Amino acid sequence: MSVGANELKRFITCVQKNSTYNFSEYSENSLIRRIEKILIDNTCTFDILLERIRNDSDYLHSIVKQITVNTTELFRDPKFWQDFRHDIIPELQKKESITIWHAGCSTGQEVYSMLILLHELKLLERATVFASDINEDVIEIAQKGEYPYRFYDDYKEAFKQVIKFNPYGKPFKHTPFEKYFEVNAKKSILQTASFLKNKVQFFTHDLIALSPFTDQKFDIIFCRNVLIYFKADYQKKIYECFYHSLNPESYLVLGMQESMGWFMNSLFQKKNSVYCKWEI
Ligand SMILES: C[S@@+](CC[C@H](N)C(=O)[O-])C[C@H]1O[C@@H](n2cnc3c(N)ncnc32)[C@H](O)[C@@H]1O
């Protein structure tokens, strides 16, 4: 079944009436595609979907999880991490403390990528790290730091590109992947090292409510591949919120395919996928 503007409105209202979730600021096209996929995957009609959402809160939660896309990887887009290491890490080395927030962290691989980089460059002890996501299931996986063994080759290759043979920085040729992940072929998992996991405060948070922090300021906010699902007006609101949550001379990181648009030029200066806060 194809979902039109009327169904979309009914879906958003139904979810809003029966939970704290509000999808009215999500981009219409991507939301429509997700609802159509849910109808196929759940083999149901639109009216049955709404009826189940109204009557079964567990089902509603499972639908919310199907709406949010959780794709992520260790050192996703290695070129980004190579540039980040070359352009931004030297600036971080000048700071006595580094406070980081990963907003929309999914199952945690982005967080652990950053921690590995900081550890190799002897900056981990200076770091305080928060990571949040709307979806409580992915936060649980991130906290456990257990990933399917089938990702081993891909993760090892990305690790090699960013850590072992980085073209712009000092390579760490002898750093083994196993320093950070215990490879348990029997259980078919890659287990993240405890000293990395213990470094992060994970929590659930919906960016619709803007920042969960009142006084905390950050040196870096990662929000990669999250805001593409939001309408442009709301993206702007979140960018402004991030701006006010950043320390002077600090950074907002977006996904490789994302861009803030000219309206934010007065607040941020762009270098690759990293936006540096202007001081006004
Ligand atoms: C595609 S993943 C990106 C993960 C990671 N940042 C990366 O780039 O690899 C998008 C994440 O944003 C989260 N998300 C979607 N809507 C959100 C919202 N309103 N508040 C917080 N997180 C949200 C999803 O649950 C999902 O885990």
Can you put this structure into words, describing what you see?
This protein is α/β, with parallel strands linked by helices and about 280 residues long. The chain has 2 domains: about 5-65, no CATH class; about 80-275, 3-Layer(aba) Sandwich (Rossmann fold), CATH 3.40.50. It has 11 helices and 10 strands. It has helices at about 5-20, 30-40, 45-55, 55-65, 80-85, 90, 110-120, 135-145, 150-165, 195, 230-245, and strands at about 100-105, 125-135, 145-150, 180-185, 190, 200-205, 220, 245-255, 270, 275. It has a 7-stranded mixed sheet with strand order 6-2-1-7-8-10-9. A 3-stranded antiparallel sheet has the order 3-5-4. A hairpin with a 2-residue loop joins strand 9 (about 270) and strand 10. Helix 3 crosses helix 4 (about 55-65). The longest helix is centred in the first third of the chain and has 14 residues, at about 5-20. The termini are far apart. The model has no long low-confidence stretch (mean pLDDT about 95). S-adenosylmethionine (SAM) binds next to loops.
